[in-house]
Design a protein that fits this description.
The chain has about 400 residues and is α/β, with parallel strands linked by helices. The protein has a single domain, classed as Alpha-Beta Barrel (TIM Barrel). The chain is about 40% helix and about 10% strand. Strand 4, helix 7 and strand 5 form a beta-alpha-beta unit. The longest helix has 21 residues. The protein starts with 7 loop residues before the first helix and ends in a 13-residue tail after the last helix. The N terminus and C terminus are likely disordered. The site of zinc ion has 5 residues, from loops. Zinc ion binds next to loops.
């Protein structure tokens, strides 16, 4: 990212030499003269050209190139890096960022879900979402093809095969969706692939775990948003929702849902974490829960450290199985990061710790990211409109 040199000169040089070659071959040889030359050379024995290979009657198709193998998926299901970039006026490579591009690369991350978080009380929540989306797009453009925004699991696989970082855009906050379907459609068109219907602020779509309403849960507008997402293979994120809204969303959705950054309440009793029945409900419908690192949501009695996160993940695996657990750090979201998990380059240490704690390599690979690809493929397969807005090119 440090240097972005113009490479137009190199391409221009290439065109110049092509032009020179073209002028060499531009001298015409008339067919009759060519025949005469050929007869003379053969008759005089001056040359004995090898026989021409017969022209095949049917064109032989070029061999299909073997696709590059899919590397292991290493996904962070929730970071707030765009908000930190905007507030700190820094680029994606800034060392102050917990999930900067270089730190993610050092941590082996090849899929990241970048949250477009809507702050409480902003005048134009939809405009704020678009502003953050544009900032992510600009960071990706400036990455010199190290990263690419993806909007379908097929695109995600293609980017991974190229050895690049796949960026998934996610809205965090239903206040940006007061206009309903037009807002959903516009954000989808701009590349958003995951919608969280609330943040800590309850929205017209659902109530938040921090502001439960009575009566609460998923509103009619929220149900319409869920149906809209289902029909287009768009992921629904229940993190931050109240228990009632989470349960109703899982029931209303015809596709699995994700809790991108939520822990188990049985292990750390705060409203923001998921109670056992909801963990079971999400997993039972094929969903995914991303373990998150904000210290007070990992343990309440003291400052959390990496072993506490390992214990939380093991507890979640024990509850719903390794196939339904992921990692959603919440880095750059003003979190109290656990000791030993301060930034994305600490993720290899977490993976080692999970292995040392008794999880097998297959489970650690699934939690690290394999589950996310499978989850999105399931959401994609459940869409009702394969030829519409849910196509590979929104
Ligand atoms: Zn959050």
């Amino acid at each position: 990212m440090a240097s972005r040199r113009e490479r137009g000169g190199g391409r221009g040089g290439g065109r110049a030499s092509q032009g020179a070659n073209a002028s060499i071959h531009a001298v015409p040889i008339r067919p009759r003269r060519a025949l005469f030359l050929g007869l003379c050379l053969t008759a005089c024995g001056a040359a004995d050209p090898p026989p021409e290979p017969p022209t095949p009657a049917v064109a032989v198709p070029a061999p299909t190139p073997t696709p590059s193998p899919l590397p292991p998926v290493v996904a962070d299901l929730h970071v707030d890096t765009v908000t930190a970039m905007l507030s700190g006026e820094v680029g994606w490579d800034a060392s102050a960022l917990e999930a900067s591009l270089p730190r993610m690369q050092a941590g082996g991350v090849n899929v990241v879900v970048e949250a477009l978080w809507i702050e409480r009380g902003v005048d134009d929540p939809f405009g704020r979402a678009v502003q953050k989306l544009k900032r992510v797009r600009s960071a990706v453009l400036q990455s010199q093809r190290q990263a690419a925004i993806v909007t379908s699991p097929g695109q995600l696989e293609a980017v991974l095969r190229e050895g690049r970082l796949a960026v998934v855009l996610a809205l965090e906050g239903g206040t940006a969706l007061v206009e309903g379907e037009p807002a959903l459609a516009e954000l989808r068109k701009l590349g958003v692939s995951m919608f969280g219907l609330t943040w800590s602020e309850s929205s017209p779509l659902a109530d938040s775990s921090a502001e439960p309403r009575s009566p609460g849960g998923l509103t009619d507008a929220g149900r319409a948003a869920v149906a809209w997402c289902n029909s287009r293979g768009v992921m629904i994120d229940v993190s931050h929702m109240s228990d009632e809204a989470t349960g109703q969303t899982v029931q209303a959705s015809t596709a699995p849902v994700i809790a991108s950054h939520s822990n188990a309440r049985a292990r750390c009793d705060v409203p923001r974490n998921l109670p056992e029945p909801l963990l079971q409900a999400i997993a039972g419908r094929g969903g995914l829960v991303g373990a998150m690192f904000h210290g007070p949501y990992v343990r309440v009695d003291r400052k959390a450290s990496r072993p506490d996160v390992v214990s939380m993940i093991r507890s979640m695996v024990g509850s719903i199985g390794a196939a339904h657990v992921g990692i959603g750090s919440d880095w750059d979201g003003i979190i109290q990061a656990p000791v030993g998990l301060e930034s994305a380059d600490d993720l290899p240490a977490l993976r080692s710790d999970l292995l040392a704690a008794g999880l097998d390599a297959e489970q650690v690979a699934a939690i690290s990211g394999g589950n996310f690809l499978r989850f999105w493929q399931a959401v994609w397969a459940a869409r009702e409109d394969p030829s519409g807005a849910g196509s590979d090119a929104p």
